[in-house]
Amino acid sequence: MQLSMTAAETARRVSEGELRPLETVDVFMKTAREREPNLHALLAVLEERAGHAAERLDASLSRGEGPGPLSGVPVVLDDGICVRGTPTTCASRMLEGWIAPYDSAASEMLDSSGAIICAKGNMDEFSIGCSTETSAFGATANPCDPGRVPGGSAGGCAAAVAAGYAPLALACDTGGSLLQPASYCGVYGLRPTYGLVSRWGVAALAPSMDQLGILSRTVEDAALALSVISGHDPRDAMSSPGDRPDYMAAVAVPDGKDARRPLAGRRIATVAEMRGGSDLAGACREALDRTLAMLAEAGAELVEVHLPLSFNHGLACYQVLLAAEASSSLARFDGVRHGLSAEADSLNSLYLGTRGKGFGREVKRVAAAGTYILGSDRYEDCYLRASNVRRRIVGELLDALAGCDLIALPTTPTTAFRRGEFDGDYFGMSLSLSFTVQASLAGLPALSFNAAGAGELPAGVQLIAPRRGEAGLLAAAAAIERVRASRDEAGERRSER
Fold first, then answer.
1. Which of 79, 109, 151, 349 has the fewest CB atoms in 10 Å of its CB?
2. What's the CATH code, domain 7-245+433-482?
3. What would the pLDDT profile of 146-171 be if each residue is shown by its tens digit?
């Protein structure tokens, strides 16, 4: 079995009896043992649970029961996603040793689909960070260059997919927590529409923006995973009702007259304010230009939109709202109800001792900033002002998308930065989210994919769609994937002559 095998191919071969589920688990475990000493992408390897799941699946298939769409596919989950009977620490000392007493909606749906949850991925502590360096249990290295970060907060999951541990991983995206690592590690990252995928059993950071998403190595695998995990869940108050389309049909190879120009009639926009920015690295600008050329080759019409509010004030707006919501979400960790509890002789000392020992530096900084923002004499000037700006950003984005099908822009301003480069400089590091917070603020779906040249560090390009526009995102990414494959094949033929 090859490590590069996709989720779709793995499921097919397991369903047809060419592979046994235990074989896919064995490959995952072998890869993890070989690569973990250098990468530290995982916080918990669930070998016993995965083995039992593989045995149950094998017995089910032997009885002739219908295979699930992800039969035998190894999956990594971000450590903020609950899996019954396994550690869920959110990469924090505050939850060290805590065992989840229930399954998240995501883990339930994965189990029902035949997928095998093999590990929990490393992350920034409570998802606060952009590099996976704030994890209380050690930083993760980027598989493409171990001297660089994999991004964050979901850097462990992105690194695990990029390194070949598993073809799929699930992680939460708040303001780019999944999209930015996808860009840095050179994999696909899909943030669905807010409410499309249930967050039941996922640790909250900023509930008005948190959204569970997918990391994969192919667009087909992203579509397959979305088909499994999307759906209405009454346990999540923000879960949206309604049928979901056939996401696999969106990535199918077109036939007939549409085969060469599958995006004919689609309007794809670039952002005037972003393309003229001096802070955009050359590799990221080239990745965008390369992608636009492939979109045009696939038949899309390229247009331009102006989003001055979104790109001049989006990051600041996001940071204020993130701090405020994070402060509220983290208030539950008080040393009384669950998690770490310090010894103390008064309630105030208990709070101070617990949070002093349990939270890392960046978590304390964000929680303190959020508490300040929510203070009675600052609430209107800080929180309400940011909320008003957010509403205007949402309107600006929706107006732009009313005149086009997708917006294309780099996922990040630069390629992956070096480990330790922004130590103590959270605001400098947060500039890596400059192009991802807009979709989060508006609850829009976004998809990042690697558009770097051969032999270069990964450089992601991001597509943003209207709400519930995942099928259009996937179709455009599939068209780009086929154009790029065709170009690579043509280049190989020329080199052989």
1. 349
2. 3.90.1300.10
3. 999 999 999 999 999 999 999 999 99
